[in-house]
Amino acid sequence: MDELRSWLNYQVNTYLRKLRLKDAGIEESEMKDLFTWIHVEGLQLVSLDEGTVEIGEARKASEVDAIIIPIAFMMLLILMIMMSLPGMLHSVMEEKTQRIAEVLLGSLKPFEFMMAKLVRGIAVSLTSSAVYVIGVVVTVNYLGYNDYLLYHVLPWFFIYTDAV
Fold first, then answer.
1. How far is CA 108 from CA 54, 93, 98, 99, 115, in A?
2. Could you give the angle at the alpha carbon of 89 between the alpha carbons of 85 and 95, nearest 5°?
3. Rounded Cα–Cα distance for residues 132 and 138 (Å)
4. Are 43 and 61 in contact (CB under 8 A)?
5. What is the pLDDT of residues 124-157, one digit of tens each?
6. Residue 125: how many other CB atoms lie within 10 Å
7. pTM, two decimal places
8. What residue segments make up the domains of the chain, in order of their start?
9. pLDDT by residue (tens digit) across 22-31?
10. Partners of 43 in the β-ladder
Protein backbone atom coordinates (compact mmCIF):
# COMPACT_ATOMS: atom_id res chain seq x y z
CA MET A 1 0.00 0.00 0.00
CA ASP A 2 2.86 2.39 0.71
CA GLU A 3 4.27 1.99 -2.79
CA LEU A 4 0.85 2.64 -4.35
CA ARG A 5 0.28 5.65 -2.10
CA SER A 6 3.75 6.98 -2.91
CA TRP A 7 3.25 6.55 -6.67
CA LEU A 8 -0.18 8.22 -6.55
CA ASN A 9 1.18 11.06 -4.40
CA TYR A 10 3.99 11.65 -6.91
CA GLN A 11 1.63 11.68 -9.91
CA VAL A 12 -0.83 14.10 -8.31
CA ASN A 13 1.90 16.46 -7.09
CA THR A 14 3.66 16.47 -10.45
CA TYR A 15 0.45 17.31 -12.29
CA LEU A 16 -0.47 20.07 -9.82
CA ARG A 17 3.03 21.54 -10.08
CA LYS A 18 2.74 21.69 -13.87
CA LEU A 19 -0.67 23.40 -13.65
CA ARG A 20 0.54 25.97 -11.13
CA LEU A 21 3.63 26.81 -13.16
CA LYS A 22 1.52 27.17 -16.31
CA ASP A 23 -0.94 29.50 -14.49
CA ALA A 24 1.97 31.61 -13.23
CA GLY A 25 3.44 31.80 -16.74
CA ILE A 26 6.73 30.13 -15.78
CA GLU A 27 8.49 27.52 -17.88
CA GLU A 28 9.06 24.25 -16.01
CA SER A 29 12.58 23.91 -17.43
CA GLU A 30 13.61 27.18 -15.68
CA MET A 31 12.49 25.96 -12.24
CA LYS A 32 13.52 22.31 -12.35
CA ASP A 33 15.89 22.50 -9.34
CA LEU A 34 13.21 24.19 -7.25
CA PHE A 35 10.94 21.14 -7.38
CA THR A 36 13.48 18.37 -6.86
CA TRP A 37 12.10 15.55 -4.72
CA ILE A 38 14.23 14.55 -1.76
CA HIS A 39 13.83 11.04 -0.44
CA VAL A 40 13.43 10.92 3.34
CA GLU A 41 14.69 7.82 5.06
CA GLY A 42 13.18 6.56 8.31
CA LEU A 43 15.60 6.33 11.22
CA GLN A 44 15.32 5.05 14.75
CA LEU A 45 16.10 7.16 17.78
CA VAL A 46 19.70 8.05 18.47
CA SER A 47 21.51 5.96 21.07
CA LEU A 48 23.49 7.06 24.10
CA ASP A 49 26.75 5.36 24.99
CA GLU A 50 26.65 4.83 28.77
CA GLY A 51 30.43 4.77 29.22
CA THR A 52 31.40 7.89 27.28
CA VAL A 53 28.01 9.66 27.50
CA GLU A 54 28.18 10.47 23.78
CA ILE A 55 25.28 10.41 21.38
CA GLY A 56 25.65 7.73 18.71
CA GLU A 57 24.34 7.65 15.18
CA ALA A 58 20.76 6.61 14.54
CA ARG A 59 20.26 3.33 12.71
CA LYS A 60 18.00 2.92 9.72
CA ALA A 61 14.55 1.77 10.83
CA SER A 62 13.68 -1.70 9.63
CA GLU A 63 10.34 -3.22 8.76
CA VAL A 64 10.97 -5.99 11.29
CA ASP A 65 11.09 -3.45 14.12
CA ALA A 66 8.03 -1.61 12.88
CA ILE A 67 5.75 -4.49 11.88
CA ILE A 68 6.82 -7.99 12.89
CA ILE A 69 7.77 -7.39 16.53
CA PRO A 70 4.46 -5.74 17.55
CA ILE A 71 2.50 -8.41 15.67
CA ALA A 72 4.48 -11.18 17.39
CA PHE A 73 3.90 -9.64 20.83
CA MET A 74 0.18 -9.23 20.14
CA MET A 75 -0.14 -12.82 18.88
CA LEU A 76 1.62 -14.07 22.02
CA LEU A 77 -0.64 -11.91 24.18
CA ILE A 78 -3.77 -13.25 22.47
CA LEU A 79 -2.44 -16.79 22.83
CA MET A 80 -1.96 -16.30 26.57
CA ILE A 81 -5.45 -14.86 27.00
CA MET A 82 -7.06 -17.63 24.98
CA MET A 83 -5.18 -20.28 26.96
CA SER A 84 -6.04 -18.80 30.37
CA LEU A 85 -9.72 -17.96 29.95
CA PRO A 86 -11.14 -21.44 29.24
CA GLY A 87 -9.61 -22.82 32.45
CA MET A 88 -11.11 -20.00 34.49
CA LEU A 89 -14.52 -20.42 32.85
CA HIS A 90 -14.40 -24.17 33.38
CA SER A 91 -13.65 -23.78 37.10
CA VAL A 92 -16.54 -21.34 37.52
CA MET A 93 -18.94 -23.69 35.72
CA GLU A 94 -17.73 -26.65 37.79
CA GLU A 95 -18.30 -24.71 41.01
CA LYS A 96 -21.80 -23.80 39.85
CA THR A 97 -22.82 -27.34 38.90
CA GLN A 98 -21.33 -29.07 41.94
CA ARG A 99 -22.30 -26.31 44.39
CA ILE A 100 -18.75 -26.07 45.71
CA ALA A 101 -19.04 -22.31 46.17
CA GLU A 102 -21.88 -22.64 48.67
CA VAL A 103 -19.87 -25.05 50.81
CA LEU A 104 -16.77 -22.85 50.68
CA LEU A 105 -18.75 -19.71 51.47
CA GLY A 106 -19.75 -21.35 54.75
CA SER A 107 -16.15 -21.09 55.91
CA LEU A 108 -14.87 -18.11 53.88
CA LYS A 109 -16.03 -14.57 53.33
CA PRO A 110 -17.15 -13.84 49.74
CA PHE A 111 -14.31 -11.32 49.27
CA GLU A 112 -11.69 -13.88 50.34
CA PHE A 113 -13.21 -16.51 48.07
CA MET A 114 -13.25 -14.26 45.00
CA MET A 115 -9.77 -12.89 45.75
CA ALA A 116 -8.40 -16.44 45.94
CA LYS A 117 -9.98 -17.24 42.56
CA LEU A 118 -8.52 -14.07 41.07
CA VAL A 119 -5.03 -14.72 42.45
CA ARG A 120 -5.18 -18.32 41.17
CA GLY A 121 -6.15 -17.13 37.71
CA ILE A 122 -3.36 -14.57 37.65
CA ALA A 123 -0.81 -17.12 38.87
CA VAL A 124 -1.80 -19.60 36.16
CA SER A 125 -1.68 -16.88 33.51
CA LEU A 126 1.72 -15.58 34.66
CA THR A 127 3.19 -19.08 34.78
CA SER A 128 2.11 -20.00 31.28
CA SER A 129 3.17 -16.57 29.98
CA ALA A 130 6.59 -16.95 31.60
CA VAL A 131 7.08 -20.36 29.97
CA TYR A 132 6.28 -19.02 26.51
CA VAL A 133 8.24 -15.78 26.89
CA ILE A 134 11.32 -17.62 28.18
CA GLY A 135 11.02 -20.00 25.22
CA VAL A 136 10.83 -17.06 22.80
CA VAL A 137 13.81 -15.30 24.40
CA VAL A 138 15.95 -18.46 24.32
CA THR A 139 14.98 -19.18 20.70
CA VAL A 140 15.60 -15.61 19.52
CA ASN A 141 19.00 -15.51 21.24
CA TYR A 142 19.93 -18.91 19.80
CA LEU A 143 19.05 -17.78 16.27
CA GLY A 144 21.08 -14.58 16.71
CA TYR A 145 18.20 -12.11 16.39
CA ASN A 146 18.53 -10.69 19.90
CA ASP A 147 18.81 -7.15 18.47
CA TYR A 148 15.13 -7.38 17.60
CA LEU A 149 14.03 -8.45 21.08
CA LEU A 150 12.85 -5.49 23.11
CA TYR A 151 13.58 -6.41 26.72
CA HIS A 152 12.04 -3.21 28.08
CA VAL A 153 8.67 -4.26 26.61
CA LEU A 154 8.55 -7.64 28.40
CA PRO A 155 7.31 -6.29 31.77
CA TRP A 156 4.48 -4.51 29.94
CA PHE A 157 3.59 -7.78 28.25
CA PHE A 158 3.04 -9.43 31.63
CA ILE A 159 1.11 -6.43 32.97
CA TYR A 160 -1.26 -6.40 29.97
CA THR A 161 -1.68 -10.18 30.09
CA ASP A 162 -2.93 -9.98 33.67
CA ALA A 163 -4.92 -6.79 33.18
CA VAL A 164 -7.20 -8.55 30.71
1. 60, 19, 17, 15, 11
2. 150
3. 10
4. yes
5. 888 888 888 898 889 888 888 787 777 888 888 8
6. 21
7. 0.49
8. 2-35, 63-163
9. 888 888 777 7
10. 60
